[in-house]
Fold:
Amino acid sequence: MNTLNRRAVLRLAGLSALGAAVAACAPDAAGGGAPKGDAAAKAFGFTSWSLNEEAQKGAVQAVLDAYAARAKVTINPASFPYNEYLNQVTLKLRGGQLTGAVQLDISWLAALAAMGRLKDLGAQAAGGGYTDVALGSGQFGGKQLGLPWTTGSIGLVANTELLKKAGVDGMPATVEEFEAALRKVAKLGGGITPYAAATKAAQLKDILPWMRTFGSPLLEGDTITVGDDASVAAVEWYKKLYDDKLIAPDVDRFDARALFAQGKAAFYDDAIITRGVVASQSPDKSLTEKMAPLARPVLKAGDTPQALLWGHVIVVVDGEGSDAAADFAAYATSDTATVASFFEKVKLPPTTTAGLADPKVSGDTFTADWTEKITKTATANPFWRYAGYAQIEAAIAEQVQAVLVGRSPAKEALAKAAETARPLQK
Amino acid sequence: MTATVSSRSIPVERVARRRPPRSRAAAWAAVTVIGFFGLAPIYWLVVTAFTPDDKAFAFPPSLVPTEITFDHFVRLAENEQLFGYLVNSVIVSVVTAVLSVAVSAYMAYAFSKFRYRGRSSLMHLVLASQLFPQALLLVTLYAVFSATGLLGSYTALIVSFTTFTLPLCVWMLKGIFDTVPSTLMEAAAIDGASRWRTLHQIALPLAAPGLVAAGLFAFVRAWNDFIFALTLADPDRQTLPPGLVHTYLGEFQTAWPDLMAASLVVSLPVIAAFMFLQRYLVGGLTAGAVKG
Structure:
């Protein structure tokens, strides 16, 4: 009879362990993370970055649970970090791994629409009661490819306490008044940045609404107008604020929020969620009461205040489970009780007339003010229609930064930005 | 030439003693500056991990914490999802390290101790694969794993990590096998040992420091990877780097103190591994670096 010596036993044990490891590493029966739907479309996927974000995941999960119970379907959630989301979703859509409903930032719609795999949600949009501005944020190429989930804007927020201390009466309505207010705030000293405007290249796209304020359309038809007299005047004005230390170097959105939360900035640009974000970073528990949204100052009285549209849409990938996913998208974005409850939890404004009129929403003064003063006149970034919009924004931002640090005159820099941006219009 | 150099060689202690005070001060200044750049981020990580949320964003920032909290560590301990990421990291990193060492040891031994046509070209081909930016291979690997049904699995991660660690591991171990005298192999052969036995009972034990160094390199590579772990693994099989980003870096805000606390905790296994194995690591990395 054969006997096993110690070495043979160890060898067998090693082989067994290796086998077990290989077995453990094998893909499961479901075959990976792609959302699956059955033939009767009683299951579909929902991909969303909010599903894993502490501040929102509970509210989003509640919407999923309520719909799943109501429609008797299974929703397979998937999530990627916000900063990597577009890359991951694009890769998975291209690889056929993405099905069902997908949350998108409105600026990403063109990039995904260009792949030709999104379902037209015109029928769902028609009966949803959405506002025109909101519907517009989900349209591309004449089709309704996304149902608006939240529609807001990026606009100016002020610390009214600091303005009062500086002797600024009322909110500045024109660029001239705004600059005068900044100069008054600067006199307070104490390390206060009057306007925590974006000056880091990564966030300098915030200058685009100022260019519009000065009269540049940015894009006419397919012609980039960055570099025209109005945009040059806007950048020269920004440079003046920079040189006079009314705005600070090396500031992005995160820095601006931190400065504002610490009471070290009188104005800054942010989305409507600013209230919750700065409150969590501030030692001053009453800061939110001192925050006030204001319409971006205009060049001359009577002009329309400029603001950048901001929001999320839900798109649906054509194919497996798409009808059920489209029904879910309509429910999540337009069922009044659902959107009002969602607003109550996360303070993201709804997109339907009925949702906005719900007492839970209309009773919120900050949101009502923001909607009236900022979102009402907000428009989309015209470059969003191009899949390469981010590179276009980066080309402009890079040249604006060159102006700020004194490396180039504004006219020359913006002409160069336009030249770099032109080949990216596709 | 060699004789001249060796006749002039001076003991290291004497060289140090003769160094003028000014150059010693300059050396210390250089060490201090470099140390500051190396250690300042770690110091800031530790300080932020113990700073309350509302103080973490204080302006101007305080170099010394004025208030200490353990809340971030408590929240970390309560987060079951992060524990899942940790388990995934351990599985993927350990298997990658073992697989990398196993494969690269055989490859390196073959490159070092056998002579055959195309050996040199093959060796450089292995090294040349390091010239490609790894992110470029992501799309290709994604398609390959998708077609083979491996997408989302641990296997996808382990195979891709092993692919990237192999070239360096092979070259590191080849250098070590080069230092093992061939006469030992010949002696073993004369005594009747097979090539298999010679490799396993003579060469591998002598190359142990190199195996440890290669294993650690592969482990750390797998432990720290972000983009492959995010793209190739299912959400429930993702490792700590994408897990931490997912948990703490959001659309609107970043929970810096929580992220720093989590980073501190997840660094501990790697730090412990380095401390425990550092003598092997140094020996393994430098072995074979100098000929003769």
User: Anything to note?
Assistant: Confidence is low (pLDDT under 50) at residues 22-39 of chain A. The first strand of chain A starts at residue 43 and ends at 47.
